[in-house]
Amino acid sequence: MPEHNRPGDALADRYRLTDLLTESAGGRFWRAFDSVLQRDVAVHIISCEDERAPLLRIAARTSATVLDRRMLRVLDIDETPDNRCFVVNEWGTGTSLDILLAEGEPLPPPVAAWIVAETADTIALAHEAKVAHGRLVPENVLIDTDGAVRLIGFAVDAALHGLPAGRISTDVADLAGLLYAALTGKWAGVSRSAVPPAPTEHGHVLRPRQVRARIPRTLDSLCDHILNHGGDTEVSAAMFADALRDFIGPSAGAAEAWLARLEHPRKGVPGVNLPPLPDPPPRDANGAPAADLAAADTTEGDPVDTTGSTKDELATQAGMPIFHDDTDEVTWLRRRSEPAPPPPPLEPQPERPLFAPEPAEGQPVRRPRAAPVSPVGAGGGGFWPWENTGTGGGTGSGSLPAFVDDGESADRRAPGTNMLRLAGVVAVCLLVLVAFVIAFNLGRGRTPLGTARDHQASGVQTQTPDATPTPSPIAGVTAHDFDPQGTDGSENPEEAPNAVDGNPATFWQTSIYDQQFGPAGLKTGVGLVLDLGASHQVSEVDLTTVGTPTQVQIYVLDHAPTSLQGAKPAGRTTVTGTKGTVTVDPPATGQYVVVWLTRLPAADGGFRGGVAEAVVKGD
Predict the structure, then answer these.
(1) CA dihedral 308, 310, 313, 317 (to 10 degrees)
(2) Predicted TM-score of the model (pTM)
(3) Could you give phi then psi for residue 257, rounded to 5 degrees?
(4) What are the helix (H) ranges across 17-155?
(5) Angle made by CA atoms 322, 325, 327, in degrees to the nearest 5
């Protein structure tokens, strides 16, 4: 890079360099001023002789094909007479996500989900155009002064780091890393970032709920599914965004309003133009602004509310926001200007005398109850002796004569009669049930107890109708390599017939890979296509692998495959040791069986796997 790259220099007689933001490996990132359009821009400069210069040109052209409001777009690309290549981008004003996490606590879950959902929407739009960001780290996610999300260095930043273009699977893994970082303050994505790395255990990243409490289970499961389990090959940025939108629901407006109220830090960060913040107002010993003290001492002519509170009430010291889901608005918890009124007094209990009132002279202390009508005699004397003595049919002793019912003996039953009847009904039902079971077993050709008859004792041998026939190996199988994600589409094709020659000593092996398969690697898998010669029903595939452990998926197709896009695996397993069986349940019918290796054993210099024998069984 020429030494005369200094502040004040002009590129193409238009872009005047003002501030050098970052410098790495011969590339420089400047803030510049566009003298034609009178605005600030961001400029990436690199020598035309640098091996990254062709990648930078390609990245700038592909990035310009994606139009979205959340992207800091590429505005220009040119070369100077002194052999310098430069790319001009929009200039963003705000705070990057890494600075936002470094300055404070991790974000609330609704806010974190909204930021990553906005990012995922833009990434999904770019993936439809076959364009990838390539380095989706917190440093490249900007929260502008209006609370909107902007993406920095789309495809250009990856090119400056020497990364290849089109890393779509890396973008999906980095989206999960962005959500993990916003929830916990730790980075768990594939690309490198200055954010502290996430803690791991036994080679797996800890779930967000293990790092920080009160994280919703939906977001926790989404991060764990993609980061630890590799997700599915069908997971895309659009599906990731839809899952976050379903979680946010009507709280999206509240989350955006929360971000719009952020106080951006004073210090500058790469790609961020931060306006100066005003000095904070003076506060009293309790933390309240001094303006409150002056407003409390109202003088003549000051506006005073009729309720007795000041015109402008301030938030509590905690500054707690209140999210309204029904109106998508955010308000702030206010501090009372005066104490709350006391509750109304309790109504007094009615007075009750401690002792009963004295009875009137000549009256009893307790009045007798009214006597019931007596069924004896025409006079109907009462039960109480002082009301039926001397008159009517009373006995005069306060008791009634015995009443004899002539039909009582006919209605009286012996004790326990009802229980005997119930027991009889239950016994009859049990007998009917036992008879039905015996008849059913005899009808199936079994003994009354349901066991199989011993036909050998009588000299008759029968075959059990429920026995499942054992699948047999399918002969005439041929094999060829299958590498749809490779540059040349082949993976040691001369060794492919060794996997079906019946000799375990010969085998087919993959190339040696620096990275494991999955979203973090360059491929999601590689394998073999077994041609059965005709359509067969496939029940299982016996495999003898090279190395351990090896994760395998089996696909059964009617046509020769060119890719596995949209296909669903018929079975999968992890082969530990050297032999394993993949069961196809339910059995699938087709002429072509794909043995797809999704995880390879460790080998010298990286990862490598292989298949010594593959036997397809069915009918």
Answers:
(1) -90
(2) 0.45
(3) -65, -35
(4) 53-63, 97-103, 109-128
(5) 95
Name which of 85, 76, 87 is nearest 48 in CA terms: 85
Q: pLDDT tens for residues 241-290?
A: 999 999 988 777 777 777 777 766 543 333 333 333 333 334 344 433 34
DSSP summary character for residue 40: E
Q: Which tokens belong to 42? A: 């961001």
Count of CB atoms situated within 10 Å of the CB of 402: 5
Interatomic CA distance for residues 244 and 226, integer angstroms: 14
What is the identity of the amino acid at 16?
R
Length, in residues, of the chain: 619
Longest dimension (CA), the chain: 142
Task: Write out the H or E segment, with its range, that includes residue 422.
Answer: helix 417-443
Q: What is the pLDDT of residue 518?
A: 81
Query: Smallest Cα–Cα separation from 118: which of 1, 231, 259, 23?
Result: 259
H/E element, 487: none
Rounded Cα distance between 161 and 175, Å, is 19
CB 397 within 8 A of CB 388: no
Q: What six digits make up the tokens of 182? A: 């916003």
C-alpha to C-alpha distance for 611 and 528, rounded to whole angstroms? 9
pLDDT band at residue 216 using 50, 70 and 90 as cut-offs: very high
Which residues have CB under 8 Å from 619's CB, separation 6+? 469, 471, 472, 536, 537, 539
Nearest Cα to Cα of residue 499 among 378, 603, 613:
613
Whether the link from the prior residue into 493 is cis, omega within 30° of 0, is no
Rg (CA), the chain: 43
Closest CA to 30 of 8, 48, 49, 50: 8
Cα–Cα distance, 480 to 494 (Å, whole number): 8
Helix (H) or strand (E) holding 131: none
Domain annotation for the chain: domains and CATH numbers: 10-90 (3.30.200.20), 94-260 (1.10.510.10), 472-618 (2.60.120.260)
From the list 69, 65, 48, 70, the residue with the least C-alpha distance to 57 is: 48
Query: The dihedral of CA 470, 473, 474, 475: what is its sign?
Result: negative
DSSP secondary structure letters along 141-186 = EEEETTS-EEE-STTHHHHHTTPPS--HHHHHHHHHHHHHHHHHS-
Report the alpha-carbon distance of residue 222 to residue 209 in Å, rounded: 12
Write the pLDDT tens digit of every residue in 513-532: 888 888 777 788 999 999 99
Is 226's pLDDT higher than 70? Answer: yes
Residue among 486, 488, 562 nearest 529 (CA): 562
What is the amino acid identity at position 480?
H
Phi, psi of 502 (to 5 degrees): 80, 5
